[in-house]
């Protein structure tokens, strides 16, 4: 799918709008929105402007050229905090190019929606958390969860059942 199709779908869902609500707002048919989101058609310049105005982003952001959306500053700040507080070997293992990330943070490289999604995925975050719309995942919790899964997957069936029962016991007594 094109960058535009992905961005439009994301923005519409983020705003909690149906295809029909967006279509009504910008005075086109619902089927046109569907075709844009499935990459079957690109909108005219006028429709692009209406969509950009509706979501308060630029046309460049919509088509994936640059980051001019409202949340790019928040994304960069969150990216900087994660890069600063993470071990470089962990970032490297996750596929994060820290040099490129730093260029994005300081604005040297533009931040497209696709690039933002890719970075968020590599960091184990949702795009919403990177944009400040939900709490970011706790890196330590993520590592602990990975370690627990690794340990449990290596246990024989009988031991696995015992371990799961013990974890359920711990979980049920957590707040007590």
Task: Record keyword descriptors for this entry.
176 residues, extended, mainly alpha
Short description:
This protein is an all-alpha fold and 176 residues long. It is built from 12 helices and no strands. The chain has helices spanning 3-14, 19-26, 30-37, 45-55, 59-62, 72-85, 88-93, 98-105, 113-122, 127-130, 139-153, 157-172.
| Overall average pLDDT | 81
Helix amount: 55-70%
Question: How far apart are the first and last residues' alpha carbons, in Å?
Answer: 49 Å
In total, how many beta strands? Answer: 0
Please report the number of helical segments.
12
Low-confidence stretches: none
Strand residue content: under 5%
Q: Can you write the helix and strand succession as a string?
A: HHHHHHHHHHHH
Outline type: extended
Biggest beta sheet summary: none
* Cα-based radius of gyration, to the nearest Å: 21 Å
Class from helix and strand fractions: mainly alpha
Structure notes:
21% of the residues are buried. It contains 12 helices and no strands. The chain is extended, with a radius of gyration of 21 Å. The protein starts with a helix and ends with a helix. It is an all-alpha fold and 176 residues long. The model has no long low-confidence stretch (mean pLDDT 81).
